[in-house]
Design brief:
Blueprint lengths: L12 H26 L4 H27 L7 H18 L1 H26 L4 H23 L8 H21 L1
Helix pairs in contact: 1-2, 1-3, 1-4, 1-6, 2-5, 3-4, 4-5, 4-6
């Protein structure tokens, strides 16, 4: 695929790729924060480590797509580095159920986000659509795993979930622009 050059119309997929790379990067930082607190001593931590490996693969795909298509990454990556790690560490410090509640909330929003992107893309970008569909299925698995590991038993689950989901929506909209 040819690279975008100054003066060319911007492809409508640029903001999609930017926000998806930022989101997958943020997910790797959340899991890094959780694992820094939890280590590998619990079944929940081992599940999180497996999900983190998938998120790293997703991020690597979008890193490559950013480079191949000449898409500007988000300017907020330094913020995502700190905020993602802090969210992961804070939820893990509360306990394994809270770490899983974080995953369930994030993946609920990402599932919705990827569905909207697939609808917008239609058949205009098969490579991007295929990756998004594959990653969406894995994100849904992550949510189901989190729910199966007690996410809804976390302290103040409805409030925690609502706040994290709101944060995800804000992050998505912000990364589209910056």
């Amino acid at each position: 695929m040819s690279r975008w050059r100054p003066g060319d119309p911007k492809p409508r997929t640029d903001s999609m790729i930017r926000v998806d790379q930022a989101g997958e990067y943020g997910a790797t930082r959340i899991y890094a924060g959780q694992l820094a607190i939890m280590g590998d001593r619990t079944p929940a931590a081992r599940e999180i480590a497996g999900m983190a490996r998938q998120e790293e693969r997703h991020r690597a795909f979008f890193d490559k797509m950013i480079a191949d298509r000449g898409v500007r990454p988000t300017l907020l990556q330094p913020f995502w580095t700190v905020a993602g790690f802090a969210l992961g560490a804070a939820t893990a410090a509360i306990g394994p159920e809270a770490a899983m509640a974080c995953t369930a909330a994030v993946e609920t929003e990402i599932d919705k986000h990827y569905s909207e992107q697939l609808q917008q893309l239609g058949d205009s970008d098969p490579a991007l659509s295929a990756a998004i569909a594959e990653f969406q299925a894995e994100e849904v698995e992550h949510r189901e795993t989190a729910l199966a590991h007690g996410a809804e038993s976390a302290p103040a689950y409805p409030l925690m979930s609502a706040l994290i989901r709101l944060g995800c929506r804000v992050a998505i909209e912000t990364a589209k622009r910056f």
